[in-house]
Structure formats: structure tokens, C-alpha cells
Amino acid sequence: MRDETGESVDVAVIGGGISGLAAAHRLREIAPELSVAVLEAGPRAGGVLGTTRRDGYLVEGSADSFITNVPWAIDLCRRLGLGDRLIATDPDRRRSFVVRKGSLEPIPDGLVIMAPSKIGPMVRTRILSIPGKLRLALERVLPRGDGSDESLASFARRRFGREAYDRLIQPLVGGMYTGDPERLSVKAAMPRFLEMEQKHGSLIKAMRAAGRAEGPKAEGSGARYGLFAGLEGGMSELVEALVDRVSVRAGAKVDRLERDGDGWRLIVDGEPLSARSVIVATPPKAAAGLLRDLDGEAAGLIAGIPSTSSAIVSLGYRRDRIDHPLDGFGFVVPFAEDRKILSGSFSSVKFAGRAPEGSVLIRVFMGGAKRPELVDADDADLVRIASSELASLLGARGEPELAVVSRWRGAMPQYEVGHLDRIATIADRVAAIPGLEVAGNWLGGVGVPMCIKAGEEAAARVAARRAAAAGMA
Ligand SMILES: Cc1cc2nc3c(=O)[nH]c(=O)nc-3n(C[C@H](O)[C@H](O)[C@H](O)COP(=O)(O)OP(=O)(O)OC[C@H]3O[C@@H](n4cnc5c(N)ncnc54)[C@H](O)[C@@H]3O)c2cc1C
To answer: Thinking of the domain 109-214, which architecture would CATH place it in?
Structure first.
């Protein structure tokens, strides 16, 4: 739409990652009368999400699946007609490994990051020493904490002891956030564990109570797919389905956002664009820049959310070139092992169809809070490091037949201690600016479903305000 002052839309969504796309799509569903433009600085929509097909391999650039015990991603896929494209992880190989002294040891069955639901596997595991296991078992009788925020590392050590933290919990948590659990907030990143402690006095007791309540045949909302689901054609299917339904302008970087009467004026690559409402759905650094002149305090708080960088090296091998049976979904590496990689994901074991017949695809994660400098190494070095680590850990022989490198700089926000208070203040301050909303992976969760939720909720607030304004007119 164009008026005498230039182009105008009802709603401008800044950032075309999954958060922004979900916001625009929700507006189309609930307020189809509004004109909505998604402005994406990069050459394509999707943000970090993207899938590449090469030589018979299907390679995910970042996320390859999403958690199914919350509804937002599954629901959106179904509304987009992708219900029959959802795929489950292979039920026969749903286990992972942790590296101990250079070997892959299975993570004890029933362990949910730090909460063990089965005693037998914890007793039998070779990952922990006997004193380490005894200290872990003591968790049942330890007094509960006062429920205040603390780092994930301090919480885990307090409940389960140093060895269980160093050898098991740190690599599992670190693998999820590519972060340092010494800094991550238990309340913001994993509130469920704090709630278990507060309610049951012990995570072990809480898991057993949950097991009894559910019974052996209980099925959670995600049971059909296992805890994680993917898409047959990769995460790009989700992005493409959204892009088909909303208006996205790629290569449209928003440089400025300013008040214009009771609406907004955006400067998009030097050109003005007017909007009645704006949803900022960029990473925190860009969001802080856009909000700086509108609310310096909110911008400062957003800018204070750190993010880690990582690289993923996806390597394809002929199956017979790898000695390890690859009888699981992958492995995580404790900091204590002092290796150059954070984790490895056996992509073609996890999901069928990710590698050609007779070959396997393994994604190797590097960088993160502890080794950020690796992200700046050149592709050849990253491939060399990843393949030599797989040679040592899995017995991978010779050159990989496929190597794809993806780099994600500042892409993973870190929910550090105090994050929830920070977010609450940001939310209050943004709510006081009429016609402005924020969404993104730095608010209520980094996973794809939580980004969708944040985007859809921002859209609902915009639609509600517009409806209220129309009602008053
Ligand atoms: C390596 C990696 C692996 C992951 N694995 C998983 C997983 O397995 N499962 C899972 O659920 N989650 C996973 N995640 C997390 C999840 O994928 C992300 O948190 C989520 O996709 C982020 O979406 P977003 O839209 O909030 O941000 P982004 O994807 O970062 O999108 C933000 C967009 O804003 C654009 N932008 C920035 N500034 C401007 C501007 N000024 N004007 C216009 N546009 C701008 C950017 O170009 C970008 O496209 C992973 C993340 C990473 C990095």
C-alpha cells in the first residue's frame, strides 16, 4: 500500500526467522484484514533454520527437530498442512552417549538431563565412579534449596555432586545451549527442575512420583513422535510453508525505527516505510539497536543478553568407514574431556532419509561459550578438526565424502542468572510503548516451539489492540 508519505502497511514484522514468520502467519489467521510485511535483512527467510540437499544427503544448518511436549510447533505444522510430513526419531535407537576418557558410554536410560527416573541404569553406568554414584543417590535426602535463582551448575552440583555434574549434566546442558552452565539460570533455562525440588524435595523423588502417576503406558502429547519430531524434508519445509502464506521481503534490513504520530516510521535500506504496529523479532543485539532511541533502559537490558556462537560441521561417510555401531542418536562431550568439539549428532540414524543408502551423516558441533574462537577458523580447518575427532571417537576412517560447514555467530541467547527479572522488566517497558511488540528466542525459550509461541503471542496482542482501537473509533 502506498500513500502520499510513501509505502505503508498495517503491521511490520522486523526479522524473518521462525519467530517473525510465526507472528506474521498468526496475524493472517486471526486478523486477515491487516496488511503485514515481514522485513528480513538476510537473503532468505528462516533465520538460522535452513536445509541443504547435496549428493543424496539432507543437511540441516541448525535445528533438526523440535520438542513435542509443548504444542506450538506441532500445532503450527498441522495448521500449515505439514501434519503428514512430521517424522519421529527411530524408536529403536533412542539413546545417546557421553564421552568418558575418549570412549562413548551410553547415557543411563531414564535420565532426563539431570533427573534420573530409573535407579538401575544409574547404578550400572560406567560414567560415574562409586563415590560419584553414592553422592548422586544422596540427592533423595538432601534438604531443598530456598527456590531462588542460581546457576544450573550450582543447582546440579548442590543436588547431585560434582562428579555427576562434570561428567553427565554439564555436557547435556552445555550441548543444548552451547553455553556454560556456570552462568545459565536454572529458573530461566530449566525451571522444571527447580519446581521438582520445591514440590518433592528431590528430583529423584519427583521423577518416581511422575512415573507412578503416568503409569507405564501413559502417553504425553508428544508420544506419537517420541520427545522430538522433525520434518521429512527438513526444517526448510516449515519455513517454506510459512513464506508461501505471508509477505516476506528478503534483503530488507531495518536500520531505524521511530515514532510517527500514533504509528511508526521504519527506514528499510534507506527507504521509509510506515506501519501502524511493529513486531521486532530479531536477535537481541539488533533489537536493542532498534529500541535504543525509544526506550534506552529496555534497549540496555536487551543488549545485556549475551549470545554464544557455534559452528556445525556435517560430515558424510560410507557406513563401512566407521567402526562404531552408531546405535544411538549421538554423543556429548564434557568440558572435562578437553576436546575441540561439543557434541556429535548421528543425523541419519536419528531420522531416516538423511544420507544415501550405505552412507551416514554426522553433525559435529563446535564453538560455544568455551571455544568461541573456533567459529572463526576457516572451513578446511573445521572439517579437519571434526573429522579427526570422529576418527578418534568413532573410528571414522579416511576422508568424509561430504562436508558442509554452517556458522552461527551470536545466534544462541544465554539465559543467565537473573534472566527472568530482566525479561519481565523488558516486557513491562515494551508494553508501555503503544503499537510495539517484541518476539524472539531471547524471551521465553530458545527452542523452535517457544519461538513460535513468542511470535504468535505478539501477533495476538497486536490483533487485540487493533480490535480494541477499532471498537473505540
Ligand atoms: C546451531 C543451532 C542449533 C539449534 N538446534 C535446535 C534444535 O534442534 N531444536 C530447536 O527447537 N531449536 C534449536 N535451535 C534454536 C532455534 O533454532 C532458534 O532459537 C530459532 O530458530 C531462532 O529463531 P528466531 O526467529 O527467534 O531468530 P533467528 O533465526 O536468529 O532470526 C532472526 C532474523 O532477524 C533478522 N534480522 C536481524 N536484524 C535485522 C534487521 N535490522 N532488519 C531485518 N531483519 C533483521 C536476521 O537476519 C534473522 O533472519 C538451534 C539453534 C542453533 C543456532
So the answer is: Orthogonal Bundle (1.10)
